[in-house]
User: Fold this.
Amino acid sequence: MRKIIVLIFLLFTTLLFSQQKFSGAIIYNVSLKPRDLSKIATNDKISEKDKQTVSTIIKNTNDVESVLKFTKNESIYKIIDKMESDADQKINLTKVVAGGNSIYYTDNSTNTFLYQKADGGDFWLIDYLPSKWVLTQETKPIGAYLCYKAILNNETNFVWYTPEIPVNFGPQKYHGLPGLVLEVQIGGLLITATKIILNPKEVITLKKPIKGIKITEEEYFKKRENIFNRF
Assistant:
């Protein structure tokens, strides 16, 4: 009975939003669980200098904010850039794992899924395939929204999405579900929605990234692997 009620609610809200212009902006907090340094500290194969470098990088790993903007068919996700002095420009693993300076773009009307990435002095436009999800009936509230759990490839990689906001968008490549993704848990990476703005007064316009070398994600990873194998 509960499943039927949820399906009826989802159908009703989808029809309601499909009859009007629908857009929004979601602010996420991105955090990364620090690695256990004990194994590194006792590893004789790692020099003291490298141990200190790794320790410094991990200590500089701070939370960052990201934003997902969407319209009826399109979405764009990226890290929110903050002004930093030269002294503050240190490696932040959270920002790197969260996507760095990449811009993630989706267009449901054309089945376009890509991200723009700066790497090796070039810009790349990388096409990728959407994730395959295992839907569950496990629920939890996030803010004012009832969310459902969807598993990516194992029990430690999952997201929480809400059918109450009936768009299939989400942060990074974590989308394609029957509702907006409000939380992502992938290993030590945690992305959690902290602010939800629906149908803002300011019109949201999204621009598809067009600068870069077009390549599939599989081709890009092979190219990077070949480069590292030279050393």
